[in-house]
Amino acid sequence: MSARDEILAAVRGALRDADRAEAPVPRGYRGAPPPADVVSLFAERVVDYRATLSRCTPADLARTVRAALGSAENVLVPESFPVDLGGVADADDLDSCDAVVTTAAVGIARTGTLVLDHGPGQGRRALSLVPDVHVCVVREDQIVPGVPEAVALLDPDRPQTWISGPSATSDIELNRVEGVHGPRTLHVVLVGP
């Protein structure tokens, strides 16, 4: 008998009389209590990730998004975006676009992360990855405390893009370079009452 066979035989012997009943695993047993103000924490974490943050009311959304776009001329605006910005919808040539404007499915307070599930107002996945500027609109009521709450809201069958700040890498000589794998500039517009 080989050493491998001896070990496996010992394991089988030890498990022979083991209780095979399923043990419930309590979810959230290590969960931290939710932060007192998820919106403020989200805003703080977004800025920590070197994204720009603007806050506005629904009535000021179009003006705030236009201001966030700055001098961008060729702007992609997906179908079903909540306000008319007069941009191009789902252009085929993403390399010629200066910026994209999307909504988000959810925002995560503890990590300052935006999650796009590419539903209404978000467009196809490549829209948020190719243009150099991404302006993302998220409503205060879409912000949840942590990742477990976000995952519970998302449809696992939909494509998802999780965004924490502008695209960045430190692969080359440990120098931070932004815009290598996605938008160099991320501007989050937080819409409140």
TrEMBL record:
It holds the Pfam family LUD_dom. Gene3D superfamilies: NagB/RpiA/CoA transferase-like. This is LUD domain-containing protein. The lineage of its organism: Bacteria, Bacillati, Actinomycetota, Actinomycetes, Pseudonocardiales. PANTHER family: LACTATE UTILIZATION PROTEIN C (PTHR43682:SF1). InterPro entries: FTHF_cligase-like_sf, LUD_dom, NagB/RpiA_transferase-like. Residues 93-191 form the LUD domain. It comes from the Bacteria.
